[in-house]
Design brief:
This protein is 11% helix and 41% strand. It contains 3 helices and 64 strands. The chain has a 5-stranded mixed sheet with strand order 58-64-63-60-61, with no helix packed on it. A 4-stranded antiparallel sheet has the order 1-2-3-4, with no helix packed on it. It has a 4-stranded antiparallel sheet with strand order 5-6-7-8, with no helix packed on it. Strand 22 and strand 23 form a beta hairpin. The N terminus is likely disordered.
Length: 855
């Protein structure tokens, strides 16, 4: 127990802290660039362009972050379209969407079509400026661009493209100026010139200067930044903290800094939610309007998610993310929180635990949180007194908390808190005595508890406790008699004596989850009915290791196993299996809220719609714990908050207050490679006339047919979870789903017309179904062009015609030759025939002579 003096101190600290805790946002920062690099880690300015990309100025170049990669820009003496100077002082996006960049040696405008810059003024051409050291850029109600350089403010003449003097301070330099709703100028200077108000229409100026003897003056003459908020001009002084001037009365109020270094204010900022922020040498602060007070966020060595040191500015993008830039350390990012709160042992947080390893959660009759850890201890968040009580095992004290990890905390019907540990048996807490009383196994007493390893505690309608004694089955404990009745596998057909959890359903049936099967004890019975996984039966439970049991508001019993989620069907006495794509099929714990089943696993939390079987998975990027969640470490309080305990702490959330990103993201094609070579030039000699992002049509030669495309969703809320699909119309029939990859490659495309299309989602699976598209035409090679085909056709026809005539002539000649040959042959045959006739006649004459002689 804590001493009264310490309790009082913490209580007073808590009371002071409590009003602010509900009004100021929780700021947990990460590094959005990770393995990516800025041109310099010493950053100076930040803004977001009309496409949603983040621009970061440094002392050595300009950087554009599109959610995937960083494009760096620097001055090149040989390139008139490069950045005008590497030292970036300020940036401004005007109402036309143009990005103005003010540097130490000039000002330029980013030309998004050609990914280069248009120089407006430089050290070579001042364009009417008295100095090229640009400190501030703004736009008045008339649409005129005003720029401060040196000790003067100028207006940019769009026609002449020259700057015209508007106002000049008597001495010193201008650090920042702003324009009020009447187009009047408020000018912050350095070198003891203080704050100057210039009424443009009356050409009248008023100076506000520090006076050591008058507390109604500004507190310091060195003004670094200015903003208009709640009808007051807020003044960031460098050495005197924050001041505010009432726009109606011109009365000044000082806000004394808590220490010397906090008085050096580097910037002020009003975000999209009308919050006022300031940055100083000690950290980041937000103005609490109700209490007229600045609440601080500070760098903490022990907390890698606290704000980085040397903060220069804070900036909120259009999606509500906060970006910070630092004089060293680059940038930080606090994305719009999902609604998950984390409690761990970080002592920098007021409400913290003694161990990260959270294994059990319960709430006492007063609503205090009891948080048990897996090593040895319980932390109680006592909301009534505003402090934390911690109990641990003390071997010298028989009334201390039991030894071992806390595996279950249970509040019975009388409000008594019961604790189960893996070594110290079963205990209950006597609040009046502030003592724990134990029930331990006595080998000599058969009526004692069966084991000192207690995993689960429940209570039946008669008031008896049922205690899972791991390795020894389950015990029924008659509290009044102090007797334990043992139920085991051998005696009562419990599925397995190595049990994890017990549950009474709405029908007063006792269910027991074990390491090998699920058991059910019907009311009034002494014998369990058991259920096992049967490989041949898909209606059996999906796995024999049953981790968790839960009955929902519809009296449906859900069974979480190491192999998936199951629902018991009492009509058929079997199970339906669900495997819709949870973060893991190893189910740790189950709860219900807002019509959904909420499931924790070793890899995250899933929200499950049991009617549609739709699932939404949450992970570390949504603010969950790293390392996942323990089996049976779960609770839900009367405020509809769900608690899941894990290896790295406790996650708490109200399902009805989870914030989903409903904004449809824009999609851009951001990169083109031809034969794996990036195309970064435009115009003559390039396949692109302007940046691929702003190109609609692309014409390529036949040998430029290996193409790679890069693309991006401009969603910057947990942008690692943006998803993409693409297809090439003319080749692909269906969309190609590539998850969070953002590149597509096509090889050896045939000549023809195609349309490349890409669609993308944000981090919460909201898709831009229109996406971005690019028409592509790959030309035929010269030997397949129309004119060449015509020439080839003419040549072919002419050749055929010539060949026809040659063939005809040849046939005629051959026919004549054949005719002569036939005539010659005929003549020979005729002659031969005549000789035969003659010979025949001679033979006939000889035969007659012989016949005469014979006679």
């Amino acid at each position: 127990m804590l001493k009264k003096g310490i309790i009082l101190f913490i209580f007073l600290t808590f009371i002071l802290w409590l009003p602010l805790s509900g009004q100021v946002p929780i700021m947990r920062f990460t590094d959005p660039l990770k393995d990516k690099s800025l041109s310099s880690d010493i950053t100076t300015s930040i803004t977001q362009d009309s496409s949603g990309f983040i621009w970061v100025g440094t002392i050595d170049g300009l950087n554009c972050f599109n959610g995937d990669k960083i494009n760096q820009y620097k001055y090149n003496i040989n390139d008139s379209t490069s950045l005008v100077n590497n030292t970036i002082n300020t940036m401004f996006v005007d109402r036309s969407g143009r990005l103005w960049v003010g540097t130490m040696l000039g000002v330029c405008i980013y030309n998004k079509n050609y990914d280069n810059f248009i120089t407006i003024a430089s050290e070579k051409d001042f364009a009417g400026l008295g100095s090229t050291q640009i400190t501030s850029i703004n736009q008045n109600k008339n649409g005129d661009i005003l720029i401060s350089a040196g000790n003067s403010i100028y207006s940019f003449n769009k026609t002449s493209r020259l700057f015209e003097l508007v106002f000049k301070v008597p001495a010193g330099n201008i650090n920042k100026f702003i324009i009020d709703e009447n187009n009047n100028l408020w000018i912050g200077t350095s070198d003891e010139e203080g704050l100057i108000y210039y009424n443009v229409s009356e050409d009248k100026e008023t100076a506000f200067l520090y006076s050591e003897t008058d507390k109604n003056t500004i507190s310091n003459n060195n003004i670094r930044d200015l903003d208009i908020f709640e009808n007051r001009i807020w003044i960031a002084t460098y050495g005197g903290g924050i001041n505010a001037i009432d726009l109606k009365t011109f009365e000044i109020k000082r806000y004394p800094p808590p220490d010397q270094y906090a008085g050096y204010i580097t910037s002020t900022y009003v975000d999209n939610k009308n919050n006022l922020w300031t940055c100083d040498h000690t950290g980041l602060k937000i103005y609490d309007k109700e209490n007229d007070y600045f609440f601080g966020y500070y760098p903490l060595e022990a907390d890698d998610q606290s704000i980085k040191s040397s903060i220069v500015e804070i900036y909120q993008d259009r999606q509500g993310n906060y970006w910070t830039i630092h004089a060293s350390g680059g940038i930080g990012l606090r994305t719009t929180p999902k609604g998950f709160l984390k409690y761990d042992k970080n002592p920098n947080n007021y409400w913290h635990t003694s161990s990260n390893n959270t294994t059990a959660i319960e709430f006492d009759a007063k609503g205090n949180w009891w948080i048990g850890n897996g090593f040895n201890g319980i932390d109680i968040f006592d909301w009534n007194y505003g402090y934390i009580r911690t109990y641990n095992d003390d071997p010298s004290n028989p009334f201390s908390l039991g030894q071992g990890g806390i595996l279950d905390i249970f509040k019975d019907k009388n409000g008594t808190m019961w604790i189960g540990t893996n070594i110290g048996g079963l205990q209950y807490y006597n609040e009046n005595e502030d003592r724990f009383y134990s029930y331990l196994n006595d080998p000599e007493n058969l009526n004692s508890i069966a084991s000192n390893d207690i995993r689960s505690i429940v209570q039946d309608k008669e008031g008896n406790l049922w205690v899972v004694a791991h390795g020894k089955g389950i015990d029924q404990f008659n509290i009044d008699e102090g007797i334990f009745h043992h139920y085991t596998n051998a005696k009562n057909k419990l599925a397995n004596d190595w049990a994890f959890q017990a549950l009474f359903d709405s029908e007063e049936n006792l269910w027991v989850a074990t390491a090998w099967g699920l058991s059910k004890l019907h009311e009034g019975s002494d014998t369990f009915e058991s259920f096992y996984n049967l490989p041949s039966d898909t209606n059996s439970i999906s796995h024999n290791q049953v981790n968790f049991l839960f009955e929902d508001s519809k009296k449906q019993l859900w069974i979480g196993t190491s192999g998936g989620l199951n629902k018991y069907i009492p009509e058929t006495n079997n199970f339906i299996r669900y495997n819709p794509g949870f973060t893991s099929n190893n189910i740790s714990a189950i709860q219900e809220s807002e019509g959904f089943i909420w499931i924790s696993t070793p890899k995250g939390i899933s929200r499950f719609n049991s009617e549609t079987e739709e699932v939404y998975n949450f992970d570390e990027k949504d603010g969950l714990l790293e390392g996942g969640y323990h089996a049976r470490s779960v609770a839900r309080n009367g405020e509809n908050n769900i608690f899941f305990g894990g290896i790295e702490g406790l996650t708490v959330f109200n399902p009805g207050e989870i914030i989903f990103n409903t904004k449809i993201p824009d999609v851009f094609i951001t990169g083109l490679q031809v034969y794996y070579e990036p195309v970064n030039t435009y115009g003559k000699g390039s396949v692109l006339n302007k940046q691929i992002t702003y190109t609609d049509k692309l014409t390529l030669k036949h040998n430029q047919n290996v193409l790679s495309f890069e693309f991006i969703s401009n969603n910057l809320v947990n942008f690692e979870k943006n998803m993409y699909k693409y297809k090439l119309e003319g080749l692909d029939k269906d969309w190609i789903d590539i998850g969070n990859e953002n590149k597509a490659t096509y090889s050896h495309l045939q000549p023809g017309k195609y349309t490349f299309k890409v669609i993308a989602s944000n981090n919460d699976n909201v898709w831009n179904e229109t996406g971005a598209s690019l028409q592509i035409r790959i030309l035929n090679p010269w030997y397949l062009k129309w004119w060449f085909k015509i020439i080839i056709g003419i040549i072919t026809i002419s050749t055929i015609f010539l060949m026809y005539h040659l063939r005809t002539a040849s046939l005629q000649k051959r026919n004549k030759w054949l005719a002569l040959k036939v005539d010659e042959r005929t003549q020979k045959l005729f002659t031969k025939n005549e000789l035969l006739k003659k010979r025949t006649n001679e033979l006939n004459s000889t035969n007659k002579m012989l016949e005469i002689r014979h006679n």
